[in-house]
Amino acid sequence: MRNYFSLLIIFVSISTFSQEVYVEAGKTDATFEFTNSQGEELENLQHTMHNYVRAGYKRSFFTENFDVSLGLGYNSYGAIGSTDTLNNFFKWDVDYLAIELGLDYDLIKYHDFVFFIKASASLEFLVQGTQTINNRVINLTDVEEFDDNAIFLRGGAGFSYPISERSRMYIQYSYGSSLAMNDDNGNSTSEEELKIKTHMVGIGLVVSVFQNQTEDIEVEIENDTDSE
């Protein structure tokens, strides 16, 4: 019977330990890589700074050092550029709603500081976007390359530090790129393609949930075991 209760304690601990919610905000430095229908890459595109926010849920998986997270994000990207030959000016501003799956691993712990590495994948949907060509503004919601659902892959690292028994602050950096977004208008010969590459730096807050419930359940089970 004691072994049964021990296994039950382990199961309850795994199912409820280190469940957390998080919020994060920061800056995105984005660059566009655009290839036109002739397969020529548009040159002289410069990066621009934008904002992002995200929030979600995370929990430990197999070990305390390894977390899996699922969250929602709102990411803004953009770029500017010009052509000397045609004397044209370009500017893009786009906003995407993201569903993100992430993996975190605590690599080094030093006193209360934790250095972690992170990898994530997100599926992103265009919310709004505009392209400015000289004085003309174009809505991008009907432009195939931007309206296509984007998949981003990212990797990075950061530091976290506890600010209370159940919460901690963190700062992290990540680099990522979208998979190629193509012109899907039925023209199989078109070579138009867009990739968005990003550098993201953010600060976030993680709060543990269900911690008290876990401790109460474990104490109650241990008391029942001892009474036998």
TrEMBL record:
Keywords from the UniProt entry: Signal
InterPro entries: Beta-barrel_OMP (IPR027385), OMP/PagP_B-barrel (IPR011250)
Organism: Constantimarinum furrinae
Highest rank taxon of the organism: Bacteria
Name of this chain's protein: Outer membrane protein beta-barrel domain-containing protein
Keyword NAD: no
A Pfam family matched in the record: OMP_b-brl
Signal is among the record's keywords: yes
Domain Outer membrane protein beta-barrel: 7-206
